Structures are given as structure tokens and as C-alpha cells.
Amino acid sequence: MRRLIILVMAVVILAAVNFEIYKKEQLLAKGSTILLELAPVDPRSLIQGDYMILRYKIASLAEVATAEKDGFLVLALDDNQVARFLRIYDGEDLQPIEFLIQFRKRGRGINLGAESFLFQEGQAHVYSKARYGELKVIKTGKSVLIGLRDENFEPLKPNDD
Questions:
Q1: 12 lies in which domain range?
Q2: Distance between CA 139 and CA 99 in Å, rounded?
């Protein structure tokens, strides 16, 4: 009986993990690509080991930073796919050019769910040129970070050293 319970629990856990993976894969496949401008950060504290802490310019806007609870931002894209903040979503219908991105209120600021970027050790010089975070976003406001881009909107890729 004990083995059966352990087996059932293992199947439930594996099913839950695989469902979350499936949801992320769907987000990657069906999501729209947007770029969020990164806020300036002291490069000495930006890169710590093999990851980079990301801060987004949108998250530092006074209206966004003073949000009272978790919610959604309404954004629009420019010609380069760079998102600009329009307002905090309050349930109104969106215009065709508008879309949502979910945020969580944390302390004095907000998190967009992609506040760090992991990369291979020894590649810090490549990613220190990052000016934009590249995200995939779906209509429900869920997002996932897929890469970083430089000031010319070119994807940053690791060197083959």
C-alpha cells in the first residue's frame, strides 16, 4: 500500500511538472515578442558569477512603482518592438495595439517575472552590452524572458571561445 501511495504521488508530481513545461512551451510558440528597456545599473554589481540581475525601466515609473497590489500593465509597441507603458490595467477593453504584461508588487517596486538572466561562465563581456530584455508574452499577460538585445536591437549570443 505504501509503494502504491508513493507511486501515485510521483505520477502526480511528474504530471504537474510536465504540465508547467507544456504551458511554457505554448507561451514560447504562441507568444508575441516584445522588448523591455533595461534600467541603468552599475556594471560592477550587475554581473555576479554567471547571471545578471535585470531591472526594467518600466518598473521604475512612479505610477507603476506605487501600484497597491499585483496586476497588469497595459503596454504598446513602437516600430522596434520596444514596449512603452500606457497605464495600469483596470479591466477595460484593450485597443488592438495594446497588450498586457503581468506584474507582482514586491516591496517598493514591481517584478515582471524575469529579473535575472543566466549565462555561461566567462560570457559576462557579451551580456554587459544588454540594453533590452526580449520576452514572449501571451494575451493573458503571462511572459517569459527568452534573451537580451543590444542598443541596435540585435540578439546577444555567447562567444564560441
A1: 1-30
A2: 7
